[in-house]
Amino acid sequence: MLSPTSGEVEIDGRISALLELGAGFNMEYTGIENVYLNGMMMGFSREEMDARLDDILKFADIGEFVNQPCKTYSSGMFVRLAFAVAINIDPEILIVGEALSVGDVFFQAKCYKKFEDFKAEGKTIIFVSHDISSVAKYCDRVILFKQGRQAVGRKSQGHDQPVQESAVKSVAEYCERTGACGREGKWDKEAVEIQL
């Protein structure tokens, strides 16, 4: 994480983040040990994590590997466990970055279903991605940053009009005008960042 250059943020509620693989995990610890470590860092007692453990393990679905050191995990196994922990600590705000892209397609679908559940519960999801199709499918608001400054910001026109008809259209038009998009609907990582 970077220190802010200006401004401040007030937080009212719990924030959980999955921004990059390895953040908040000790690679020498087993998956189980890392679940408890993350819980303690978020202020949960061992008993509170005990109550969440079955849900975490069920969502992660990595079987007996949870008893192995994380340094032996594939990137897909690692993201499964990290995401399962992030969503099971009852966050009001969930921040998810490109780390989710390393999971297999079935796990990604499971994660995006969880996004929908969170949205239905009134929770906030900040999804940072270069994948315009995922942004269009799962986001209600879009902000495009270029070189650290907001280039485009749009909100969908209501629940009946999906974001791809308003916000992403504006971002795509900007991208086309400036050449900031790469091929196949991916943002040029050198040129832009998208935050939602």
Which features does this protein show?
196 residues, alpha/beta, three-stranded parallel β-sheet, three-stranded antiparallel β-sheet, 6 helices, 6 strands, 38% helix, 15% strand, globular, disordered C terminus
Structure report:
There is one protein chain. This protein is of the alpha/beta class and 196 residues long. It contains 6 helices and 6 strands. Strands 1-2-3 form a 3-stranded parallel sheet, covered by helices on one side. Strand 4 and strand 5 form a beta hairpin. The protein is globular and about 50 Å long. The relative contact order is 0.12. The C terminus is likely disordered.
Ordered list of secondary-structure elements with their pairings:
Elements lengths: L14 E4 L12 H11 L4 H15 L14 H13 L5 E4 L8 H16 L3 E4 L4 H7 L2 E6 L2 E7 L11 H12 L13 E4 L1
Parallel strand pairs: 1-2, 2-3
Antiparallel strand pairs: 4-5, 4-6
Helix pairs in contact: 1-2, 2-3
Strand portion, in percent?
5-15%
Uncertain regions: pLDDT < 50 for 5+ in a row?
A: 156-165, 182-196
Estimated structural class: alpha/beta
Principal-axes shape call: globular
Which sequence of strands runs across the widest sheet? 1-2-3
Q: Could you tell me the radius of gyration in angstroms?
A: 18 Å
Number of helices: 6
Q: What's the helix-strand series?
A: EHHHEHEHEEHE
